Amino acid sequence: MRDLKAYSARSVPSRSEKARRGLRLAFSLETYLHNRAATIERALAQSVPEPSGLAARLFESMRYSLLAGGKRLRPVLALASCEAVGGKPGAALGLACALEMIHTYSLIHDDLPCMDDDDLRRGRATNHKVYGDALATLAGDALLTDAFKILARSRSRAPSAAAVLEVLAELAEASGSAGMVAGQVIDIESEGKELDSSQLEHLHARKTGALFVAAVRGGARLGGASPRELGRLTAYSRALGLAFQVIDDILDCEATTEQMGKRTQKDRALGKATYPSLMGLQQSKELARDLHSRALEALEAFDHRADPLRALASFVVERNL
Amino acid sequence: MRDLKAYSARSVPSRSEKARRGLRLAFSLETYLHNRAATIERALAQSVPEPSGLAARLFESMRYSLLAGGKRLRPVLALASCEAVGGKPGAALGLACALEMIHTYSLIHDDLPCMDDDDLRRGRATNHKVYGDALATLAGDALLTDAFKILARSRSRAPSAAAVLEVLAELAEASGSAGMVAGQVIDIESEGKELDSSQLEHLHARKTGALFVAAVRGGARLGGASPRELGRLTAYSRALGLAFQVIDDILDCEATTEQMGKRTQKDRALGKATYPSLMGLQQSKELARDLHSRALEALEAFDHRADPLRALASFVVERNL
Predict the structure, then answer these.
(1) Shortest distance, CA A50 to any CA of chain B (angstroms)
(2) pLDDT for B87-97, tens place per residue?
(3) Sign of the Cα pseudo-torsion (B115, B118, B119, B121, in order)
(4) Which CATH class is domain B2-318?
(5) Chain A: residue nearest B132 by CA?
(6) Roughly how many angstroms between the first and final C-alpha of chain B, as a whole number?
(7) Would an 8 Å CB–CB cutoff place A176 in contact with chain B?
């Protein structure tokens, strides 16, 4: 939760009334964010067995990447969305863990030599640099699989088994061949090719956006959202997911490896289409601010219980602007 | 279904009254097995999108391995188990597809250069030899993820959402860090080491057994099994799963690459512990026959609707004895 706390504490000038509103709320929400992140860390630590027995190195390898910190953005979004519609955060805790496990598996596999071949992640050696390619592949496989087990077993605090099943189906759809994996394939296949802005949006809606949408919609469903609330939160999460990617492209272009804890400037080196390469840096920042406004607008009908979601939107968009 | 049909048609002498009974039933069940396999093939073909769009090569790669034939043993077991307790096979069809998708993902990842580095599977080039390591890794990831989506979306023909959720949790548990992936890690980590028979059983209960148990228990649960029926079918599936592995070890030792459609004799080359290396060929065959008897005994309280399960036990054990 280091990153979110750092955000809450520092003073970044905001660019519009709405952004300023989000920022002010974030300050008052420091405790909220801190508590939720701590809950998630505890639950994640219990989600993977302690290393012992003949498969001890598998559990070690899973824990190495899962418990390496990180922003925990997707799980916090799930809890905040659950609470925005009046649910208790515990109802979405299984989903929160599943989201972070799926996100972590995708990072482990993306870093493999046969994919992006990265040595550094979250400020330390990538999984395969420590455990080897075979164990890293298997640790990713196990995190992905266990994620669905943990969500399926989180039924007791959910409104109904049917709700959990629908949340799980949407999470799997967002992560698989119609979502995140498709996005990764499109990303690889389009290296060195020109993409227009609609193709780039198509890519990112799958590669990163789908999991944001699954986090927010899933959290809301487990909190007992009405269809209308679900619709509004879907709009919020789509804007937020795209904003996240636009900002990621900007950071890859502007930040140093040291600041990010992972290799930067690699998109250009690989000839990958990004928002800055497509529309320039200034217009990319403008787009991120516009998406931020859209995310906040989608929350207008919600009361103060959606303040964490508002603060999270500001965090995502303003982490570098 | 080539393999199962071939089994039904040929005449192998059986070694005991129980084995003979299983074999006789198999002959009369040729149509059953053929029909169920055809149903599964059709459902699998609909489980993965036709190649189109920017991620077309992902879908191609998934279909290449998923629709490559194979015995379809796990899905047929799920349908047969569903029917053994009086359910309609359609209730377990989502589970059947999920099982084969998970089995296929595990083969694709096991064949990768960083794992077993195999070139040949089901008589043709392995996935990564055709599509490259990155796409093979991602096709495996997508098959695994989509498996849970398809099972979660198969609710309409199941007894209840709660039943599907429990089946899904057991399937994920059988496939992840407590099951198949752990088995694969133990297998890799114990290369060149001596394992005793209890460690070898521990390994195989995870690597192959767990998915057999999930197939049979899941099919039964979706067919509306009573707790007592579920217990008996669990005993059946444990014996069957271990028998399958013992036979696999024997085949790896005795059969040629041409007969198996995959590289054989590799266990010894890799210094892997196997049943023949641990107890000799004759005693391994004796163990397989003993497990076969135990599997059939577990079915004694079931009527003729369990005949397909009896025939499948005979198929698994007698394919080379």
Answers:
(1) 11
(2) 999 999 999 99
(3) negative
(4) mainly alpha
(5) A114
(6) 20
(7) yes
